[in-house]
Structure formats: C-alpha cells, structure tokens
Specification:
There is one protein chain. The strands form 2 sheets. A 9-stranded mixed β-sheet has the order 4-3-7-2-8-1-9-10-11, sandwiched between helices. Strands 5-6 form a two-stranded antiparallel ribbon. Helix 1 (3-30) runs antiparallel to helix 21 (606-638) and helix 3 (66-74) packs parallel to helix 12 (313-322). It folds into 2 domains: 53-153 and 189-331, Rossmann fold (3-Layer(aba) Sandwich); 388-603, no CATH class. The protein is 63% helix and 9% strand. The longest helix has 60 residues, at 541-600. With 651 residues, it is of the alpha/beta class.
C-alpha cells in the first residue's frame, strides 16, 4: 500500500467514525437525551475529526531535492513537475501545501518586509489583507506551474536591509547570501507561502511543509518552535554525493535531532543516488557504495541505518510519469513510501482513535447509565405497584409514606451536593488563579520590566530562567488543584452511590503533564538559541528582550491557552455525570410518589397504571438495545486499522 492509498484509507476511516458519532448525536436528540453540555462535547469531537490534519515537513539545505521529492511522492499523477525544481535555490520561503474548501484555490504570499514588524506568521494568518493572493487555475497544469513559481521569487535589497530582515550577507564563509557587484543582495521576496490546492490527499487533511535551507530556518524561529516540532513526520534530506555537510549537521543538531526531542516520524532521506549510478560498475558495486554512504550518514547523525532511506526523487518522478516500474524500483522510492505509511499513518490514527474513544466512551457511558437509571426506577415503581395488588388502603398509605420518606432523605442529602458544587466552584477559581492567562500576563509583564532594567547579562539570563520557573510552578500548583477536585468528587461519588444507589463510577482524571513537557521544550530551545553567553554578549539588551517575548514567550502563552481550554472542557465534563444522575433520581422519586398517590386517591385503577408503566418499560428496553447497537458500531470503527503494521487491535 502506497502512502497515498494508506492516507486515503485513513481518511475513509475517519469519515466513517464521524458518521457513527453523528448517528449517536442524532439518536440522543430523537430520544430527548441530549443536553447543552453533551451537544457541545459531541460538536467539538466532530469538529476535531473534520479539521484533523496530518503534517509532513520536508527539511534540508538548498539543492537537496525537497521539491522534487514532494513532486515524486504526491504530484506524479499530474504528469509533470508541479512545484518548481531545478539546480540552485527554488523554494525560497517556507511553503505550506494544504486545502481549505472555504477558500478558492490560490497561493497566499506574505511579503518579506513583514519581518521588520517582529510579528509571527501565525499572527499574520489572522489578517488576510497582509497577504498577496495569486489565483490558481487547477484545470491547467501549465498555469499551475507558472503560478507556483512565485515561491522562487527574490527581491534585490541593499546589504543593511538584508541583514535587518535576518539574512546574513557578505563574502565570509558564514554568509548565506552574497553581495553583488552593485552592492545589492538577492533575498526571498516572500516570508511564507500557503498554497490552497484541491489535491485529493490535501482534501483529505494532508498538510505538506516545504522549507528552504538553513538561512530560512535560522531566521524564522516559528519554524523550529512550532511548525517542525508539531509535524507528524519530518523528512530530512541529504545529497548522496556529499553526505552530511557541516550545514546539514547544524540543521540536524539544532532543529531536528535535538536531545530529548521527538523521535517518531523523523526520517533521513539520502537523495540523488542516481549520481552514484556508474555504467562502469556492477549493480552490486553501486549498491555497496550507496550502502556505505548510508552507513556513514547514520554514524554521523547517530541514527540506526534503518532510518536512512537512499532514493532518487528525480528518477522516481520520471518512472511514475512514464509508468516505468523497473526504474521506480531502482529509485528506491517505494521503500520510503512504505516506511512513511507503516509508521506515520498508524501513529496518527492511534492518536485520533484514543482521543475519540475516550470522549465517546464517556458520553456513551453517561447515556447508558441514564437509561439504566430510568429503567431501574421504572421497575422499582412496577414492583411497588405489583405489591399493592389485593392490598387494603392502609398498605397503600404505608407505601406512600415510605417513598415520601425516601424522597425527603434524598433531598436532605442534596444539601451535600450543593455544598460540593460550592467547593467545586471555589477550587475551580483556585485552579484558574494559577493556570489562567491573567497570571501569565502578570508574569510576562514583570519579566519584561526586569529584562529591560537589567544592566548585566546575568540579570537578563536569570530573568528568562525565572520566567520558565514561575510558569512551571503555576502548572504544578494547577495540578495540585486538579488532584484536590478529583479527590473531592471521588468521595461524593462513592457517598451518593452507597446512600442512594446512583451509578456514578469514577470521575475522569486530567493531567497537565503535556504542557509541562512543552514548557521544558521551549526552555531548552531558549537555552540553546537565545539564553547563551554568545547571544547575550553580541546582541543589544533590547534585541534579546524583543526576541524572547516575540519568539519564546508567545509560544508559552499558546501552551497556557490550550491548557485553559482543556481544563475548562474537563471541569464541565467531570461534573456532568453527577448532575445528570441527581436530576434523574429526583425525577424518578417524584414519579414513584405520584403513582402511589393516584392509586391511593383512586383517580385511576392499579391495573391501568401497571399496564401503562409496562409499556414504558418495553420502550426503554428497546432504547437500551438501539443505543447498544450504536455503541457497538462506533467501537467497531474505532477498532479498525488501515492495513498497516503497528496498529493495536480493537478494545
């Protein structure tokens, strides 16, 4: 199965899962079992499935063949090169290929001058007017090719402007851009490009990130702080004839193979092996030379040889276009595609499965518990009424008194429930006092003041370290509040289960550990790229401060924003089972009392009431059966794989 086939199968699975959850949502509405909280949670789950994206990044120095590899893997069916690919620099700016049906096919280009505003790319994505839009004619491959050449455009600026935009220019070895005889420098015209294109894989949620060389990676911290770490797969390209160059090694060590960084989905592609095809050598000698080069790269990058994939992207593209199977095999691209599909898709499916399974199972258990409670209450009514057959009026009065007493005891017990709600509200306030954005804003403000007032490099460094220390402490205190909320709910759940027979189970847990790890990652990046003696001694205090807040602190804020959203969703969900069960138990006690009252007052015959309740019982039993059928269907979909190794079996 190719990567395209594998991803299509994954997309079909995701669509089937969404259909099953939509069916569950419709069933709840049809049976008047939905409420605002359940509707919100199901809506959010379906939105996540609809907007699910698989991000694959291609990273390398220029002229390693990234664009050609993208063409070979994803666009060969168009019968030509869709992305520009030639000797030298072609992709001059980071380029995202994706599809959003709400927007027309187009290329959105962010001018390079926006770097002077020190505003992140993600912020600019909120302001469409800042981007130049070029329409794409998807019916004409030639017009598409012409439009896509925009990502290769350059602008001629003076050396001072180039360096102000973040490009090192000059004749020295470290310079990425050369100064021409007229004193001008060719720099990328665009800072970022978004290609919105209805390719079948992009329509299914694939997002491809094509990055330029070290010059762009080094000058766009958002790439290394957000886009690359969040990519599900990163393909790092080397040239087979040169192996690992010094600039390749710099990119690998600083941005991809960092210690403690993500390992899954990180692959090294040794491209252009056709340069080693020598007609004067035997196939065995050529294979041995390629294997030797791959082993050398593996040793240099400290990777197992199985993670190095020698390919010829150019020959693979030609082979696919000409339907030349022997040449395609010789290009070795199928091995890379198989490795991508075998590792990437199952790992992505596992994440989506686990998240969807947890949310659906919780909502399903709530609804099933609600029906079970209704059925148990109804059967208790039937048992009481059946026991009244042939009994005198005094027995009916006794039974009525018994139910009234039970109702009063439960309502007295509700005072504990209301007290729990009050304590829950207080603990929630305590949680957001530490986790909330107000606390982070206060920390950001005090850190900025300390850095601007600093007179020594050590003070600057200590201020940055203190920022992370306090942020981490706030997460730790928040975890303490979460554990206190859980302990309180577990106690009240058990008490109501024992005293009133409510089926509450165990409250769902929650942890902020993923955000603690994100803060650790951001601090590690800061310590490597910004909070170093070299940076502090060679850059002005104002510049260091500006870079810290516009590149690092903004990512910390986003992590806290996500933590706040997740905590709010958990707090709503964790109280929902108790609220539902308490409300349902109140209703059942009221109905039982009313039934016995009506029998006592002879407003209806005992047999009529028993018959009526028996009919309702049959309907509830049927509802339980249909709900179980929906649950089995969704769980069967959750348990399906997409024909790749590594997927766990259905639970």
């Amino acid at each position: 199965m190719t990567l395209a086939q594998q991803f299509a199968a994954y997309s079909a699975w995701r669509t089937q899962l969404a259909a099953g959850i939509e069916s569950f949502r419709g069933w709840l509405a049809e049976h008047d079992l939905d409420d605002a909280q359940t509707e919100l949670r199901l809506g959010q789950l379906l939105e996540k499935l609809r907007e699910d994206r698989l991000h694959v990044a291609f990273v390398a120095e220029f002229s390693r063949g990234k664009s050609e590899l993208i063409n070979a893997i994803f666009f060969a069916d168009y019968g030509n090169r869709m992305l520009p690919s030639s000797a030298g620099r072609t992709t001059m700016c980071p380029t995202e290929l994706m599809y959003d049906p709400a927007r027309p096919p187009s290329i959105e280009l962010l001018p390079i001058q926006t770097r002077e505003a020190n505003t992140s790319i993600s912020e600019y994505k909120r302001f469409p007017d800042e981007w130049k839009v070029v329409a794409l004619d998807v019916d004409s491959p030639e017009a598409m090719q012409q439009a896509l050449r925009h990502v290769s455009e350059v602008a001629r600026v003076d050396r001072a402007t180039a360096e102000r935009l973040g490009f090192i220019a000059g004749e020295e070895e470290s310079a990425a851009f050369r100064v021409a005889e007229d004193g001008l420098v060719d720099v990328p015209r665009w800072r970022h490009a978004i290609i919105n294109f209805p390719h079948p894989l992009l329509q299914q949620g694939l997002v491809i990130l094509d990055t330029p060389g070290l010059n762009a990676i080094g000058t766009e911290p958002e790439l290394t702080l957000s886009l690359l770490p969040n990519a599900h797969a990163v393909l790092f390209l080397l040239a087979a004839d040169t192996g690992v160059t010094q600039s390749d090694l710099t990119i690998w060590r600083e941005h991809i193979g960092t210690p403690g960084g993500r390992k899954k989905g990180r692959m090294v592609v040794l491209n252009k092996i056709d340069g080693l095809w020598d007609e004067l050598k035997t196939p065995e000698e050529i294979d041995a030379e390629i294997a030797k080069q791959a082993d050398t790269c593996a040793w240099t990058l400290d990777l197992p040889a199985s993670q190095i994939f020698p390919v010829s992207a150019q020959k693979a593209l030609v082979a696919k276009i000409n339907d030349d199977l022997p040449l395609l095999r010789r290009s070795r691209l199928p091995e890379l595609e198989h490795a991508l599909s075998a590792e990437l898709i199952p790992a992505k499916q596992e994440i989506v499965r686990d998240n969807s399974d947890a949310e659906f199972s919780d909502l399903y258990a709530r609804m099933r518990g609600l029906l079970d409670t209704r059925l148990a209450g109804l059967r208790e009514q039937l048992t009481e009424l059946n026991e009244l057959r042939g009994k005198n009026k005094g027995v009916v009065e006794y039974m009525m008194g018994k139910v009234r007493t039970e109702k009063e005891e439960f309502e007295a017990g509700l005072q504990r429930y209301y007290a729990v709600r009050s304590v829950f509200s207080q603990l929630t306030n305590n949680l957001f006092a530490h986790l909330g954005l107000d606390s982070l804003r206060s920390l950001t403000h005090s850190t900025r003041e300390a850095m601007l007032e600093a007179t020594f490099s050590k003070t600057l460094s200590d201020s940055m370290k203190n920022f992370f220390r306090v942020a981490r402490e706030n997460l730790g205190k928040s975890n303490g509040e979460i554990n206190e909320i859980l302990a309180m709910l577990e106690a009240i759940y058990k008490k109501f289960a024992v005293e009133h027979g409510l089926k509450l189970g165990t409250p769902t847990g929650f942890s902020l550990i993923r955000y603690e790890k994100e803060i650790d990652r951001l601090e590690q990046w800061c310590d490597t790229h910004l909070n170093t003696m070299f940076q502090l001694l060679t850059h002005q205090k104002a510049n260091v401060t500006q870079k810290f807040f516009e590149e690092v602190a903004v990512q910390v804020r986003r992590a806290f924003e996500r933590a706040n959203r997740d905590a709010e969703a958990w707090l709503k969900a964790v109280m929902a089972p108790m609220e539902t069960q308490v409300r349902e138990h109140q209703i059942q006690l009221k109905r039982r009392l009313e039934s016995i009252k009506r029998i006592h007052q002879a407003t209806e015959t005992l047999e009529e009431r028993i018959g009526e309740l028996t009919h309702v019982e049959d309907g509830l039993v049927a509802d339980v059966g249909s709900l179980e059928e929906i649950g089995r269907s969704v769980r069967a979909t959750l348990g399906q794989g997409v024909a790749a190794p590594g997927l766990r079996s259905a639970a």
